[in-house]
Amino acid sequence: MSDSQIKKGIDAVIGEERWLTEKKVQKMLKKPKKRRLISIIQPVFAVITIACLAFIIYLLPPASEPIRLGNELNIEQFAERLPKPAAEAVVAYLQAIVQQDYEALEQVSLTDVTASNKEIFLKYENVDFKTLKMIKVQSLDAGDLYQVYIAHKDVTDGEIYIHTLKVDRWGLNEFKVLEDIYEDWLVFEQFEAPKTLRLTSQEAPTAQIVQIDDYQPVAVNVQSPQKLNNINAIVHFMKKRSIQQGNNTIEYRGVFVILEKDGRYYEITSFKDDPQAQYFILESPATIHVINGEIGDNLRDVDYQLVYYNEHIDNFQSVRGQLSKTNGLTPFQTNLTDEPLYTFDGANTNIAFVQDGVLMQTTILDAMEMPLLLKELLTVRMVGAEIFDIQYQEIYTKRSTPYYYLQTLEEASKK
Prior knowledge:
This protein is of the alpha+beta class. The protein is built from 8 helices and 28 strands. It has helices at about 5-15, 20-30, 40-60, 75-80, 85-100, 100-110, 120-125, 370-375, and strands spanning about 125-140, 145-155, 160-170, 175-180, 185, 195-200, 200-205, 210, 215, 220, 225-230, 235-240, 245, 250, 255-260, 265-270, 280-285, 285-290, 305-310, 315-325, 340-345, 350-355, 360, 380-385, 385-395, 400, 405-410, 410-415. The strands form 5 sheets. A 9-stranded mixed sheet has the order 7-23-22-21-20-19-18-17-10, with no helix packed on it. Strands 6, 24, 25, 26, 27 and 28 form a 6-stranded antiparallel sheet that branches. It is globular. Residues about 10-15 and about 55-70 have low confidence and may be disordered. This is DUF4825 domain-containing protein. Keywords: Membrane, Transmembrane, Transmembrane helix. It comes from Metasolibacillus meyeri.
């Protein structure tokens, strides 16, 4: 077979089109390329990028998160019991929490947080704001600081909890809110008074000896001579001078009562700085009575300071309370002690007496075994020298226990 015949046979099998072209030969001679690294990295980078974006979105404050069911806040209750700027501060604080509005919260909050205000939002995340109610307001520090007691239902366990907010003056007519978010909220339990109370008495606190140059005189309406003859002392009403600490100026509020005796000055107490206030000073052979308010039938909100000069320590002791609405200034001579008893209403000192030349005081609520926050809803009302009851009071709720009778100065029982 000739070469031409062989070629014709091959062409008949593969066809006349040339398949082993120059281009295909060059392609076959090239080495195969390795797979590039970037083709492997791209999917991993995409996953990491998506995760980072999700984390950043989680940290950013929500722009307009819808209010959840149960977050309707009754704001009228605050305006009824607080001065307008203080009420507005509380409402702004709580509404910022309801709406999780970081910027609004920053404007009104003094609450300390470790990381961010998100901690505050998390603290309130189970609060049913429809049930949130103000149950008590207490004025502190001459009316520039208020403590607001709040109760609410928890949406997870159905329990009622209680906690407090403090509303403090921050400017001329501006208030801000602070609270301790790291303190566990307390379950709000029903108050039940025990049958018997074990009472303890302790020495009344002594006065602080001060430098008179730290004070400046203030004109007040004093309804008695300011010279105390029985103990050879003079009463001064003064304001404490402001002091500079670094870049901060510390201003002291209130009118201070200073007793001058034998060239020394004793700071006894301070009262709210009220230009309309009347001060009454009454002196008995053993004690001094300093009253801020009107002595009359209406003894509510009258500040009363009982002062006693203790010769053993050459200093004054004093106790402070509310004048008993039933007893007024009357001391009682009883079989419980050789000395007269002085009685007070309220949550602080309730009974005072002199024993062996020392002024002693008894706070009846100290005998109540219950959390302090719940105890702050209680007050004592004295009826005579040996009878009292305990009153539980919220803003819209008030009830009293049956009478307790003093068996001794160490024990009282219900009858």
